[in-house]
């Protein structure tokens, strides 16, 4: 079952699994994670937002309403003060990014608890953006290293897989993403699927 929802992050996905999909008694749950999840969590907050449609995470600027209604305010805030589109300064963004990573890590541990309680195999798939693939660098190295030490969580690092496949097929990173919205194009989704399938086939209990 493809249970992915546009714009969801790991917190939304955990809630969806708990509320809507555990009744199907899955044998395996695959959770796809990328850096957009970090940004979504910074903007929306963590688990505390669930069930609170008007919740705003700590640090949300009081002047947000003016930013949303005035081009002049946007020009001043972004062009002069240097805030990004999430309404954070560079210093705030760097500090909050680590908080977002911590929330993602804890959410994966919550997925793990569900997997133990309900008897399904948990697979986490970390996949890069085009710029992360070009730079061969991203912010998930620490999480991947910690999760890889946990035998109850299968971790698939598609940054490593994509890099190897791009070299093997002699294609550029930009060849597997759409140039405008930066999502995978058909070639990219084929690589995504093959990378996940190959990794799952190598799991110790994949025959079961």
What does this structure look like?
The two termini are 18 Å apart. The longest helix is centred in the middle third of the chain and has 29 residues. The protein is mostly helical. Helices cover 51% and strands 8% of the residues. The protein has one domain: SGNH hydrolase (Rossmann fold). The protein has a 3-stranded parallel sheet, with helices on both faces. The radius of gyration is 19 Å and the shape is globular. The model has no long low-confidence stretch (mean pLDDT 92).
Give the percentage of residues in beta strands. 5-15%
Structural class, by secondary structure, is mainly alpha
| Strands, count | 3
Overall structural domain count: 1
What composes the largest sheet?
Answer: 3 strands, parallel
Ranges with pLDDT <50 over ≥5 residues?
A: none
CATH architecture: 3-Layer(aba) Sandwich
Choose one word for the global shape: globular
State the strand order across the main sheet: 1-2-3
Mean pLDDT: 92
The fourth-level CATH homologous superfamily is SGNH hydrolase
Which key features would you list for this structure?
9 helices; 208 residues; single chain; Rossmann fold; 3 strands; mainly alpha; 3-stranded parallel beta sheet
